[in-house]
Amino acid sequence: MATQTYTVTGMTCSHCVNSVxxxxxxxxxxxxxxxxxxxxxxxxxxxxxxxxxxVEAAVDEAGYAVAR
Amino acid sequence: MATQTYTVTGMTCSHCVNSVxxxxxxxxxxxxxxxxxxxxxxxxxxxxxxxxxxVEAAVDEAGYAVAR
Lengths: 68, 68
Fold this sequence. Notes:
Two copies of one chain form a homodimer. Chain A is α+β, with helices and mostly antiparallel strands. The first copy, chain A, has a single domain, classed as Alpha-Beta Plaits. The first copy, chain A, has two helices and four strands; from the N terminus they run βαββαβ. The first copy, chain A, has helices at residues 14-25, 52-62; strands at residues 2-9, 30-35, 41-46, 65-66. The first copy, chain A, has a four-stranded antiparallel sheet. In chain A, a hairpin with a 5-residue loop joins β2 and β3. Chain A is globular and about 30 Å long.
């Protein structure tokens, strides 16, 4: 199992949290996603390490951005 | 046709706008709902005048509040 943490900007409410979580959960191998609205911190657990670009693309698809 | 305007507080993003609009559209006789995120102004068009309490209940159901 692998755990990676990202900071996502632009989330303002629980709907935003759900959107980000739903998109990331669709990535292959992802088993859990935790999103903290207050900090923007997103913790992704997966069967194998994820490609950061894939996570960033999922966040972008939801309408938000990963802070670099 | 009747048009009534309300100010809804707590909406922070387009998901919130959609939630409020979806709940109000479920009220009998409602034909159109316009929600302005920046001002919180919600304009409801309906076949006959709506009971304010019904609109307030719909907004509450969505997780927001009508300002008095």
